[in-house]
Amino acid sequence: MLASLSADDAEWAAAERPLAALRAVSTAQVRAAVRACAELGVPVVPRGAGTGLSGGANATEGCLVLDLSRMDRVLEIDAENLVAVVQPGVVNDDLKKAVAEHGLWYPPDPASAPWSTIGGNVATNAGGLCCLKYGVTRDYVLGLKAVVGGPAGEYGTAVRLGRRTTKGVSGYDLASLFVGSEGTLGVVTEVTLRLRPARRDVPHTVVGAFDSLVAAGEAVALCTRRGLAPAALELLDRACLEAVEEWKHLGLEPEAAALLLARLDAPGQAGTEEAEAVARAFAESGARWAERSTDAVEAEALFEARRLAYPALERLGPVLTEDVCVPRSAVPAMLARTEETGRRHGVRIATIAHAGDGNLHPLLITPPGDEAARRAAQAAFEELLAQAVALGGTVTGEHGVGLLKRGGMRAELGPEVCAMQEAVKRTLDPLGLFNPGKVVGAPGS
Amino acid sequence: MLASLSADDAEWAAAERPLAALRAVSTAQVRAAVRACAELGVPVVPRGAGTGLSGGANATEGCLVLDLSRMDRVLEIDAENLVAVVQPGVVNDDLKKAVAEHGLWYPPDPASAPWSTIGGNVATNAGGLCCLKYGVTRDYVLGLKAVVGGPAGEYGTAVRLGRRTTKGVSGYDLASLFVGSEGTLGVVTEVTLRLRPARRDVPHTVVGAFDSLVAAGEAVALCTRRGLAPAALELLDRACLEAVEEWKHLGLEPEAAALLLARLDAPGQAGTEEAEAVARAFAESGARWAERSTDAVEAEALFEARRLAYPALERLGPVLTEDVCVPRSAVPAMLARTEETGRRHGVRIATIAHAGDGNLHPLLITPPGDEAARRAAQAAFEELLAQAVALGGTVTGEHGVGLLKRGGMRAELGPEVCAMQEAVKRTLDPLGLFNPGKVVGAPGS
């Protein structure tokens, strides 16, 4: 039991032995646990569903694992104000379903949405497919309740950060500071979220097959230049297509170098026109073929294939997941460097990308039990982080720093900004109680 | 000269005597000035155009006023990546014009856009009309260059916070922390902004006249319930209409208790349908009349009247500007309490509101030179802050805390969260050099 709560889905991130685990059911329990841990000097490692990909929820030696997955109630859906208040253990898709009954929509849609929790989404500032048009988790967090220590009072104090209104600038934006902080500043026990009205029309899907990654990258750039605003613009390279096809036989055209999938949701006729414009942009960029799917079942199958890519690749061996994000115009260059890096290190790399956002997930696959291959993959992993930074990008678009990207983050931000980050951590968590070693911790610590 | 640089547009916020002013032209100058001020113990008060309404740019005794209005270059417009990089002194409307030449759009549109600078907009997290649909300044700030002190190194160190990519979660979101911090954490000398493609269609305008503020508030609620998403939804009460009409004779229907102005920009036929749906919602909520303006000149005149409201009221005497924001559903209650408060204190209050956001600007007008009226207005001002908080709102939606809302902010956030705010300030500015006394300073200090 303890072992299953000691790690998230990150390959090769170190998980140590917890002292105990607590499945909290209330803020009061979290408060009492944090207070007791502070007295005993026991670190607190919060976790949700454990679907993280950076080791952010991995146990540290002698810690209390604070499992929040049972705090899974939607406390309020306020349709008048387009607001929902939820506990951190609510699963993303469950929230979507609950608000849909009120004609509302919670947009952030990480690929883990069927399993991952809002608390985990907040911890990593999760993105997904439709953040291209609709923003990431931080754009939907109005306020938080968090159990903290330090300047607010003794460890175990509960505070409300942020607000419930659509606008507000009353003091520093501590709610945004907590979003993406991976449990290192306190334990989030309630989240106030902004909602949108549900979309009226079924979105359009456009698919294009390309003979080269560069041509696919150019199609993405052309869409941007023409002011087209897809709700999603996803890329799967040949290695992904082959893995899905081997497994599911969907007839996906695995001989293409890359598939682009676009989803367009402008209302009414404007949506049709936008879909046609995207199909044209694909064709003009040299697509083997590009078409607007007029069949909702077929369109859903295409996005299903995208969702299947990760599990399809996991069948082939442990997968080390990159999450770099580069300026959109650098997508072709990053794709080229990824191919070259894989070749040079002898590592099989398949790439899924939120191409419209410049957010690429090169997936490094290693044969199980092959230590040399594992070392090669880790070398390639670090090199890809450095390449993203060199292209003006970041080491993590939406998965978080956790344990695996601490070195990359330091290289990206530089010593001055890292010193600011560490100072903020020390100030808000002077005992170093909350998820120690993650995000701002020294690599290898 | 020094006197003109010692205060912003906030009525009755205390401005003290600066030691000197510097019109900086480069980050290097700002760095040198901050370094020298740290050595000499001279506080640094940054300012842009001085259009602030909370006293955030007011001089403190013996400070250096650091005027950034000459750092007014648009450094880069990157159409491939929908990004602009600007100096802080660029005027909001000038940026809009510059990016429009590339088919791009920078949405945040505070009423001060013809004069206010991006640096000031960042300092207060400025909103405006179209943030209802398109978000506030923070939603457009990807990254910042700032001159800081403390953990990053000696005072005068320049750091880059945030990023240039659309997504990123590499460490705590210090860029968002600086947005809305009113120059209290460092001096922003460069801003990297997200842009959008320009809108293709001319937006539709719908206007409705109401016999009561409550009916107007219900019309706003009905639009929300029906999932309508105006790009702007503004309210002017009778006192505003009268003041504009007395001055400009626009034929505005000053006998109505309130006018609602909506702007709809869904593309193509969807925009027409949305405009008609809003007009219907107005009518069903009891509007005396409601219609979709089919005449672009007339529509522009209506929004011009909204922009004229503030100067029209200033003709009548000093104006003390509220900026409360409440949950949308509380707009009718807040309007009713505003009227009642004005009556009870004998203060003339006119209200402009970003009604769709719940962001209300009750404007308290006092006859010039009347000390008793001034005291009554200040009492009413503080009472309205408390009422907004009691309704689940905030004391400032988009103008910032500055000097005038420090007491209100403390009441809103409570001592624990204020202690966190102060700890963050002490950590990032241990000398208390940057704009001391603003935001987190004790009221009356």
Automatic annotation (TrEMBL), chains A, B:
**Cross-referenced SUPFAM superfamilies:** FAD-binding/transporter-associated domain-like (SSF56176), FAD-linked oxidases, C-terminal domain (SSF55103)
- Assigned keywords, A-Z: FAD, Flavoprotein, Oxidoreductase
Q: Which Gene3D superfamilies match?
A: 3.30.465.10, 3.30.70.2740, Vanillyl-alcohol Oxidase, Chain A, domain 4
InterPro entries cross-referenced by the UniProt entry: FAD-bd_oxidored_4_C, FAD-bd_PCMH, FAD-bd_PCMH-like_sf, FAD-bd_PCMH_sub2, FAD-linked_Oxase-like_C, FAD-linked_OxidoTrans_Type4, Oxid_FAD_bind_N, Vanillyl_alc_oxidase_C-sub2
Q: Which cofactor does it need?
A: FAD
Location of the FAD-binding PCMH-type domain: 14-198
Fetch the PANTHER family from UniProt.
Answer: GLYCOLATE OXIDASE SUBUNIT GLCD
Q: What is this protein called?
A: FAD-linked oxidase C-terminal domain-containing protein
Please give the organism.
Answer: Streptomyces tremellae
